[in-house]
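Interim report to the steering committee. The following record documents the input for Heme-binding protein (147 residues).
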Amino acid sequence: MLNAIRQTKELSHESAVQMCLAAIAHANALPATIGVVILTPSGVELAAVRMNKAPLHALGIARKKAYTSASFNVSSLSWQEKLKHKPNTMSALLREDNFTYLGGGLPVIVDKEILGAIGVSGATEQQDIECAEYAIKKLLSSLSPST
């Protein structure tokens, strides 16, 4: 039985918490209030934080954004363009509990391998995306060897 076992990598819970804090730091600078969820590639929640005064739905929507990105290894926003001319597919996917085409969900990719996903919600769509991108950038910079 060749290739019966596959090893996978995923974010640590420490990295997930640091990503949440980075996204929140960026939101504070905007200023905005958000919820942030970090998932493993298989959709297991590693960390979730909702800022005070963030919308009550922020964490639930952030989770959907992260889950969509983890599922398909693309940004949640990319589905807007992919589904623009496919209303039947869009309708079917929107009936799925953990799918959304709202921006703010991004896969976390290191060395061409997905290690997790981040979802941010509560601000404008563009601000959610910026917070998620900032958190990933901070993570990637922490992985780079110091010179």
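Strands lie at 35-39, 45-50, 105-110, 113-121. The committee is asked to note this result when reviewing the revised timeline.
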